[in-house]
Amino acid sequence: MACVLFVCLHNAGRSQMSQALFERAAGGRHTVLSAGTTPAKHIHPEVVEVMRELGIDLSHREPQILTRELAERADLIVTMGCGDACPYIPGKHYVDWDLPDPKGLPLEQVRAIRDDTERRVTKLAAELDVGSPGL
User: Fold this and answer.
1) Quick check: 39 and 15 in contact, CB under 8 A?
2) Cα 17 from chain centroid?
3) How far apart are CA 5 and CA 72, in angstroms?
4) Strand order across the 3-8 sheet
5) Which pTM was predicted?
6) CA angle, 34 as apex, 18 and 107 as ends, to 5°?
């Protein structure tokens, strides 16, 4: 079992979608966390809406701050636009996904980000199932 941490700036869009989609794809076979370097107060409403279309309710989730302790729990850290604000911890695997921030975008664009994210997390879960994070 691997522990994956998804990190973006506000933990209100990309990383929350990634966490929820990974939870579904991994089906409990792996642990998943998400955090942001400068967390927002709430999940972006457009993200809540497009995730609800898939039967995933993010309305009850709250963004959380990325701490070194949280990062140390992870085997794999997936960053999404947080740049140098993410702590580097020796021995951890890192991968950066180039995903646009969905905040304020039209629903059509947020759906495209969601669908891209779903493809990525499904592939990642499958790779972790066979013991390789695809790095």
Assistant:
1) no
2) 6
3) 10
4) 31-36, 3-8, 76-80, 93-96
5) 0.93
6) 40
